[in-house]
């Protein structure tokens, strides 16, 4: 036979096992979500067979008329969803989207001012091991160690001194509203361009649950697989004046053939995100993150910035137990079927491999249909383990809560 189970039982078995893992674990990784079966249908379709270098109506291959329509739907829906002048839906990932923005407007050696990684920034915002840190001269800004919030006055002072050509704003582990308007003013007053990377919060931005950077930033990049709940991929939005430069920075600048199956899946995702149900989903994501943050705070745990305005919260474990590392907490929670990721915290004293923080996000459990009452249960389960990381009884009790919730809120796969 030609089915996967017959053709390649080893890989088939992995898919079955992973589906089962997703079904019976509480997923709290803030960058993950459960996409819709319809998105997976497009992503797993015959469009994977098609080469389509170029853009709709301007391809370097024959036979592109049909996939052109898929890309045009994706572009038009993305523009409508975010109110943007121009959209490029071809970046294979969030990192590729950022690479293309840099390539469109910077030369090697140019200066960029970015948020540092341990305060919540991303690798592609100038980390020394990343191409962005190797190609450009990087200066960092961060959060105020007291408040855990971006210190805009300091960003402004840095921008005046350093005179960067571009400033980036956007984070992987920041729980508060970002003032994009202020960041754009700082950038533009100092002759810099602003890149707003909304990879994490795109779903909130699309539905008005977080202020949009689109009217202010020169470039907006995002992933499509986090709060947006689409296929894995990237997206760039920009002002009309940068449209040509962005398109040529994606292709032929940094990529070859676009993934047409993924672009069709992005179109499905954007179409869904334009519906009322998606707005109520995003509102629930925020309520759920707050319910989890409140539960943990009530139980005496410390959160960076003291709470959350968005889809995630960041636990500073030093407030729970000075000996407890993020690594240890993550491993013990894993044993209780609760999936999280360890994370550095502002003023981190441990290595990125150990860390003192734990990042907790609500998008995936909210997609399963869980609400505030379930978040309280999850908070209780997490507290049991953080209070007694050596206790097997605590793991057993937490796992019971996790399995019970998973059984009550099955995935649609
Ligand atoms: N930018 C931010 C703020 C992110 O959190 C991420 C995801 O990790 C990315 C960019 C990169 O996205 P990808 O993993 O698709 O390359």
From TrEMBL:
CDD domains named among the record's database cross-references: SHMT (cd00378)
Residue stretches making up the Serine hydroxymethyltransferase-like domain: 4-379
Annotated localization: Cytoplasm
Entry GO CC: cytosol
Positions with a binding annotation for (6S)-5,6,7,8-tetrahydrofolate: 117, 121-123, 240, 351-353
Alphabetical UniProt keywords: Amino-acid biosynthesis, Cytoplasm, Methyltransferase, One-carbon metabolism, Pyridoxal phosphate, Transferase
Cofactor: pyridoxal 5'-phosphate
Recorded catalytic activity of this chain's protein: (6R)-5,10-methylene-5,6,7,8-tetrahydrofolate + glycine + H2O = (6S)-5,6,7,8-tetrahydrofolate + L-serine
Pathway connected to this protein: One-carbon metabolism; tetrahydrofolate interconversion; Amino-acid biosynthesis; glycine biosynthesis; glycine from L-serine: step 1/1
UniProt keyword Methyltransferase, yes or no: yes
Classification via Gene3D superfamilies: Aspartate Aminotransferase, domain 1, Type I PLP-dependent aspartate aminotransferase-like (Major domain)
GO terms, biological process: glycine biosynthetic process from serine; methylation; tetrahydrofolate interconversion
Pfam families the record matches: SHMT
Stored PROSITE patterns: SHMT
GO terms, molecular function: glycine hydroxymethyltransferase activity; methyltransferase activity; pyridoxal phosphate binding
Site (Plays an important role in substrate specificity): 225
KW tRNA processing (keyword) present: no
Self-association state and partner proteins as the record states: Homodimer.
Functional description taken from the UniProt entry: Catalyzes the reversible interconversion of serine and glycine with tetrahydrofolate (THF) serving as the one-carbon carrier. This reaction serves as the major source of one-carbon groups required for the biosynthesis of purines, thymidylate, methionine, and other important biomolecules. Also exhibits THF-independent aldolase activity toward beta-hydroxyamino acids, producing glycine and aldehydes, via a retro-aldol mechanism.
Protein name per UniProt: Serine hydroxymethyltransferase
Organism: Puniceicoccus vermicola
């Amino acid at each position: 036979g030609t089915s996967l189970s017959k053709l390649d039982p080893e890989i088939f078995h992995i898919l079955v096992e992973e589906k089962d893992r997703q079904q019976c674990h509480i997923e709290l990784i803030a960058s993950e979500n459960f996409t819709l079966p319809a998105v997976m249908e497009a992503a797993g379709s015959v469009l994977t067979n098609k080469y389509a270098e170029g853009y709709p109506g301007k391809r370097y291959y024959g036979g592109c008329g049909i996939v052109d329509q898929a890309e045009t739907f994706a572009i038009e829906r993305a523009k409508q969803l975010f109110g943007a002048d121009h959209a490029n839906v071809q970046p294979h990932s969030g990192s590729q989207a950022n690479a293309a923005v840099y390539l469109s407007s910077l030369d090697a050696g140019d200066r960029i001012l970015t948020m540092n990684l341990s305060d919540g920034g991303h690798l592609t915002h100038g980390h020394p091991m990343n191409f962005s840190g190797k190609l450009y001269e990087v200066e960092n800004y961060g959060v105020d160690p007291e408040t855990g919030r971006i210190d805009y006055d300091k960003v402004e002072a840095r921008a005046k001194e350093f005179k960067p050509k571009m400033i980036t704003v956007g984070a992987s582990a920041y729980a508060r509203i970002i003032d994009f308007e202020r960041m754009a003013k700082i950038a533009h007053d100092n002759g810099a361009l602003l890149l707003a990377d909304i990879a994490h919060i795109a779903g909130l931005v699309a539905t008005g649950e977080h202020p949009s950077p689109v009217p202010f930033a020169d470039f907006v990049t995002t992933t499509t697989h986090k709060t947006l709940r689409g296929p894995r991929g990237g997206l760039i939005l920009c002002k009309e004046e940068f449209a040509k430069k962005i398109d040529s920075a994606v292709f032929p600048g940094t990529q070859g053939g676009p993934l047409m199956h993924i672009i069709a899946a992005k179109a499905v995702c954007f179409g869904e995100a334009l519906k009322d149900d998606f707005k109520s989903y995003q509102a629930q994501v925020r309520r759920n993150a707050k319910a989890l943050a409140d539960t943990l705070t009530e139980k005496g745990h410390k959160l960076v910035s003291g709470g959350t305005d968005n889809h995630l919260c960041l636990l500073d474990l030093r407030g729970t137990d000075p000996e407890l590392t993020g690594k240890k907490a993550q491993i013990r929670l894993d044993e209780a079927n609760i999936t999280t990721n360890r994370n550095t915290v502002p003023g981190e004293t441990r290595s990125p491999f150990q860390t003192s923080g734990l990042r907790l996000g609500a998008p995936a459990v909210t997609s399963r249909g869980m609400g505030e009452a379930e978040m309280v249960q999850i908070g209780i389960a997490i507290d049991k383990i953080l209070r007694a990381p050596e206790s097997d009884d605590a793991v057993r009790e937490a796992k019971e809560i996790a399995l019970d919730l998973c059984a009550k809120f099955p995935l649609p796969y």
